[in-house]
Design brief:
The structure holds two protein chains of two kinds. By secondary structure, chain A is mostly beta strands. Chain A has no helices and eleven strands. In chain A, strands 2, 4, 5, 6, 9, 10 and 11 form a seven-stranded mixed sheet that branches. In chain A, strands 1-3-8-7 form a four-stranded antiparallel sheet, with no helix packed on it. Helices cover 0% and strands 52% of the residues of chain A. By secondary structure, chain B is mostly beta strands. Chain B contains no helices and eleven strands. In chain B, the strands form two sheets. In chain B, strands 2, 4, 5, 9, 10 and 11 form a six-stranded mixed sheet that branches. A five-stranded antiparallel sheet of chain B has the order 1-3-8-7-6, with no helix packed on it. The mean pLDDT of chain B is 91. Classes of the chains: A mainly beta, B mainly beta. Chains A and B meet through strand 5, strand 9 and strand 10 of A and strand 4, strand 5 and strand 9 of B.
């Protein structure tokens, strides 16, 4: 079974803190994605990566950055957390050269920014 | 950018009944996928239907796709309390970046 592991299920941070959300997949998938999920807004794509050291902006990249130094690991960084970044963050991965393939999701990281 | 729109937003049924959820989308697609999410957890892929397919089955799930109407439906037959979850459709638009675009989901409650 493909496994996508997100390092923290629940985090509580203060406004202005730097936050790292880590995601690791164990099936050699080329593509990795970060989404955020908010009530009434569904899933929105923040960033994605098709290969090591490559990244592309999704629909809502403002306030976020990402890092992919190794194929299996994709990190989401909030440089200076704000209360409007309180959300559920979902990491996903998929194989292949297109982003249209089946996604395997992690369990999610619920971030609260106070 | 939201492409898929699920309907209804919420659905409550009794165990043993069938549940039907619909998804409409706006642009031409390569494929359409359905995912399930249990409360507070990640999404799990259920089924993928390609643009040249009209119907697909997987266990108690039946998915239809009507590309002329730009719509899909997910039918869960003989529902169980364990089917209680949110269900999302995701479309892979043709051309462009081909990234999946998710709808806002249908929250299904199956009462024992």
């Amino acid at each position: 079974d493909v496994k996508v592991t997100q390092s923290s299920r629940y985090l509580v941070k203060r406004t202005g803190e730097k936050v790292f959300l880590e995601c690791v997949q164990d099936m050699d998938h080329e593509n990795m994605f970060w989404y955020r999920q908010d009530p009434g807004l569904g899933l929105r794509l923040i960033y994605f990566s098709y290969d090591v050291k490559m990244k592309e902006k999704g629909d809502i990249p403002e306030g976020y950055s990402v890092s992919r130094e190794k194929k299996e690991r994709f990190s989401l960084i909030l440089e200076s957390a704000s209360t409007n970044q309180t959300s559920m963050y979902l990491c996903a991965s998929s194989w292949g050269i297109t982003g249209a393939n089946v996604l395997t999701f992690g369990a999610g990281s619920r971030l609260t920014v106070l | 950018s939201q492409q898929g729109e699920e309907d209804p937003q919420a659905l409550s049924i009794q165990e043993g009944e069938n549940a039907t959820m619909n998804c409409s989308y706006k642009t031409s697609i390569n494929n359409l996928q359905w995912y399930r999410q249990n409360s507070g957890r990640g999404l799990v892929h259920l089924i993928l239907i390609r643009s040249n397919e009209r119907e697909k089955h997987s266990g108690r799930l039946r998915v239809t796709l009507d590309t002329s109407k730009k719509s899909s439906s997910l039918l869960i037959t003989a529902s169980r309390a364990a089917d209680t979850a949110s269900y999302f459709c995701a479309t892979a638009p043709q051309g462009g970046s081909e990234k999946l675009v998710f709808g806002k989901g249908t929250k299904l409650t199956v009462n024992p």
